[in-house]
Amino acid sequence: MVGNVLEWVDQLKLVDGLIISTADNDPSVDEANWISQEAFLDAVADITLSDKVTIRDGVAGDSSNSGASRHKLIADVTLSNSYTPNLLLRRLLIEFSAKPQDLGALYMRNYGERLPIRGGYWAYASSAGLGALHFNASRLSSDSSIGFRPAFFE
Predict the structure, then answer these.
(1) Which of 18, 58, 72, 134 is positioned for an S-S bond with 117, CB 3.0–4.6 A?
(2) Which residues contact 29 (CB under 8 A, 6 or more apart)?
(3) Nearest 5 degrees, angle CA 37-CA 20-CA 71?
(4) Three-class SS state of 122
(5) Hey, which residues does 73 pair with through a beta bridge?
(6) 89 near 19, Cβ under 8 Å?
(7) What's the pTM?
(8) Cα dihedral 23, 27, 31, 33 in deg (nearest 10)
(9) Could you give the CA distance from residue 43 to residue 8 in angstroms, rounded to a whole number?
(10) Which residue ranges in the chain fall short of pLDDT 70?
(11) 21: which residues sit within 8 A by CB, 6+ positions away?
């Protein structure tokens, strides 16, 4: 899974800090029917998984690919005291019940719409990993280091 390319991930997005996904990894669910997880990426203590956004690094709704961006090793992402654990986010390698090791970093812009990119390439060193998650790119992002895994569904 971790090679020399970052990979776009489907069925997950971040909108103004709010994590939105499908409930059960079903690719037939239209994006308009994805579910708000009532979990946010807040810019407190660099990156905190929270029940709300108290610090936003940009203007809500601004999906540009420039401006403030934060990153932190996934093992060091904190949970706010008011956050309610979410099993789906554990399955998606966003939340952890114990401190993970060597899974990479979480990058984020908690403003605008952000689509996830996972993995990493050699230049990212310890920031790359199976759990590395980039929530800082909009739908308009492109780069020679970004790819995807095509699948055929009948």
Answers:
(1) 134
(2) 11, 22, 23
(3) 100
(4) helix
(5) 105
(6) yes
(7) 0.89
(8) -40
(9) 23
(10) 1-3, 142, 144-145, 147-154
(11) 11, 12, 13, 34, 35, 37, 88, 92
